[in-house]
Design a protein that fits this description.
Blueprint (H helix, E strand, L loop, with lengths): L6 H19 L6 H8 L3 H7 L3 H26 L5 H14 L1 H17 L4 H21 L4 H20 L6 H15 L14
Helix pairs in contact: 1-4, 1-6, 4-5, 4-7, 5-9, 6-8, 7-8
């Protein structure tokens, strides 16, 4: 009896395996032939699921971001306390639990930015950055674009800094500092932009 293949599950399995290759080698250096070899399938099968490398990459990034957001929501749901301090702590526990993964994502995104002259994959990365920003905003109940951008920058900067020199900081330290300044940051007056007077 032939094996019944769930094509959606199989596609997701291929995308997860492809991420491991992109994370190791970078986006620019990986060919369709290498992807097929890594996934242990023919190039024909790969083209059946993905029109080209860029389409595969875009689907992969969207899948990973969706999974990250769902995982953060699950961690938040399991938290017994939902105070701002605890919510910040949960966010940084989530990032710490997936540190190598997020470092790999930063390296892969940097490679795409550097070598993707056509810009096809840059738009999906911008979209996914927005999804991460919204997830952090909802997680921390922010509702302020400037604050959302600042906190996303802190998260990305902490991951990148630890990639270069893990001894300089850790997620617990950053979480502690944010917990202390969060009440001040989340005031409505702090991030109000001054409107220019029209002469």
């Amino acid at each position: 009896m032939p094996k019944i293949v769930n094509h959606d599950e199989y596609r997701e399995e291929l995308l997860h395996k492809a991420f491991q290759l992109f994370a190791r080698k970078g986006y620019s250096k990986v060919t369709i032939r290498e992807i097929a070899k890594e996934l242990e399938i023919s190039t024909g099968t790969l083209y059946h699921y993905f029109e080209n490398k860029d389409v595969l990459f875009q689907q992969m990034v969207r899948l990973l971001v969706r999974e990250d957001v769902n995982e953060l929501k699950k961690m938040e749901g399991r938290a017994t306390v939902h105070s701002p301090d605890k919510i910040i702590e949960v966010l940084f526990q989530f990032i710490q639990s997936k540190e190598f993964y997020f470092q790999s994502v930063i390296l892969m995104v940097s490679d795409v930015y550097r070598y993707n002259e056509e810009g096809h994959s840059l738009s999906v990365l911008k979209d996914c950055l927005g999804i991460y920003r919204n997830a952090i905003s909802q997680h921390l109940d922010l509702g302020n674009k400037d604050l959302e951008n600042m906190l996303l920058s802190i998260v990305i900067g902490t991951i990148f800094q630890r990639m270069l020199d893990p001894s300089t900081t850790n997620y617990l330290q950053v979480s502690d500092v944010l917990q202390k300044i969060y009440p001040f940051l989340n005031t409505t007056h702090l991030f109000e932009t001054k409107k220019e007077e029209i002469a």
